[in-house]
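I am still getting used to backbone structure tokens and would like to learn alongside you. Label the sequence line and the structure token line clearly, so we can match residues to local backbone shapes. Go ahead whenever you are ready, and we will take it from there:
>
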Amino acid sequence: MKNKKHIINFVSILIAIVSVIYFIYKCYNNKNEIAEGLSILKDKYWILIIEILLMFLNITLETCRWMVIDYKRSGKKSFKDNFFTITESILLSISTPLGIGEHIGKSRNSNNIKSSFLTSIIGSFIQTSVIILMGFIGFLFINYQYSNYVFAHTFITLLILSITAIIIYHFKKKTIRRILNEFSIKKISIIYFINISRYIIFAYQMYLMQTLSIDIFNIKIVSLILIYYLIITIIPSSGLADIGIRGSVAIAVIGDNINSWSGIAAILIWLINKIIPSIIGFQSIIFSVIKSSKNHLDSGIR
């Protein structure tokens, strides 16, 4: 198990290094296109405002999704508390390997950490299935040259996810069964609806930043964005290394149809969706630590 972990970490680091080098190389060779994109974005500052508003809408939907997924534990808390739980999970996801911090952040304040952690993982499986489905839809609208490569890796990813699920289920039968019993058809339908809604928002964020216009609709760009999200989902990444991977994949997948601005656009979307919520999450953790210390001090004095 330790050897497998080391291999995964090594592959993740290797991919991150190669991606960063490729991204820097492409950006350097196309710096004029990037400068032009930044200039347009400066003039159309309202695009950033829309992107930030969409980010908050996405977090709101993710908060609702989490309250549905982990209803027995988080659903009884206020929307505000769950909102801060989500921002904390985003902060921890970018600072831990393979985004495992997301599940830690969501279960951190739960009255049953183990159950909330496993519930969060199940939620990620559902979310991944939506991304894969949308990726296949993207392939239906475009004859992409790397389709066989992506299909192969998608199959491998699904196989790994299935094996992982079987292993977890085997060793945690009672716990998993108890949690799975919480997922009724109605509940799963609601979760899928929210996931698809969030995906549409993510895709529109990327489309708006790629085209820098609300007047353009290009089905080919939309399809490539769906494929882009599929690829970054099946590529292992580690924390901040996600930046280089996203930028490189965006240039490789979408760049030929727009330009190297695609990579910068992908990173800007990442910064908006990750860094801003992470700042809120960091403040939330600090306040909770201060509050906990104060309560502990007050109880000690009494």
In short: The two ends are 48 Å apart (CA to CA). The first helix runs from residue 2 to 29. The chain has a mean pLDDT of 79.
